[in-house]
Design goal:
single chain, alpha/beta, Purple Acid Phosphatase, chain A, domain 2, 5-stranded mixed beta sheet, 19% helix, globular, Calcineurin-like_PHP_lpxH, hydrolase activity
Length: 165
């Protein structure tokens, strides 16, 4: 099962649209994960149309219909992999311990908010992934998103992709 993972798209404030390479990844994926800060419900509508399956949460910049339609925390099981999604996890210092305590029954936690890619594993085995942002790179050299594969209940082939302009 293939995954495309994005967050912090901030459309249309930070960009007019998702980059073409991200749309290609969305359309190729079995599951698309969005970890919040959509900003405009139009992107949610379009992702629901173009993705085979969408798992998303709202972020701190999402209001109105986005909060009405999306949860703060999403949990799904994908071929035996227990995946959780949340927008904010707090400061980088102490993140692993906080997330391991808050998500003890999950295998992978996808989060956003910082716009900074993150890939670590806690002492309990919880893998933490932040795809960065494909539209608002902030202090990063370029925008980013992730792809991965779920194989027999395990996350494999996690790749961070740069947005090349």
């Amino acid at each position: 099962m293939s995954l495309t993972v994005i967050s912090d798209t901030h459309l249309p404030k930070r960009a007019k649209a998702l980059p073409p390479a991200v749309w290609a990844a969305v359309e190729a994926a079995d599951v698309v994960v969005h970890a919040g800060d959509w900003v405009d419900v139009a992107l949610l509508d379009e992702l629901e149309e173009r993705a085979r399956r969408l798992v998303g949460v709202y972020g701190n910049n999402d209001h109105g219909p986005l909060r009405d339609r999306l949860p703060e925390v999403a949990r799904v099981e994908l071929e035996g992999l227990r995946l959780a999604v949340v927008h904010e996890t707090g400061p980088a210092a102490g993140r692993e311990a906080r997330c391991a305590a808050r998500f003890p029954d999950d295998d992978v936690l996808v989060f956003g908010h910082s716009h900074i890619p993150w890939d670590t594993t806690t002492g309990t085995g919880l893998r933490l992934l932040n795809p960065g942002s494909p539209t608002d790179r902030r202090r990063q050299p370029h925008g980013t998103w992730l792809t991965a594969v779920v194989d027999d209940g395990r996350l494999a082939d996690v790749r961070l992709h740069p947005v090349l302009r």
